[in-house]
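Bench notes, afternoon.
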Amino acid sequence: MKYTQAELEAFLDEALSPSEMSEIEAELRSDQELGIQLRAIHGRRDAGVHSLGEIWRRHRVSCPNREQLGSFLLGVLEDDHADYIRFHVDVVGCRLCSANIADMELRQKEAAESAQTRRTKYFQSSAGYVRKSLD
């Protein structure tokens, strides 16, 4: 299988989906030409030569920041902005943004569980005081 320069650069940046990464890794074991191509890209990078696409990916120019992703999760973004984030995560498959969203969802869930536990403890610890004041 022939890969584009952009795909190989994304492979070196670990910016492909897990299935695409494993596909290239598997082919790399048997295809010497692919190994030569990857070494050439790596050598070019070490020499300081970078493509516009490579700079774009490396600096994650198209990635929303965590504040924007948090607003997306809360559902407070304008429709166009929310649609872009959905496209960026679902279609483009940005692993960094997907990981950020998963992290924020986990933290949100943990915070909700912690708040519920705290409320229960407050209620249980003050239940005796409330009964005494009602008597």
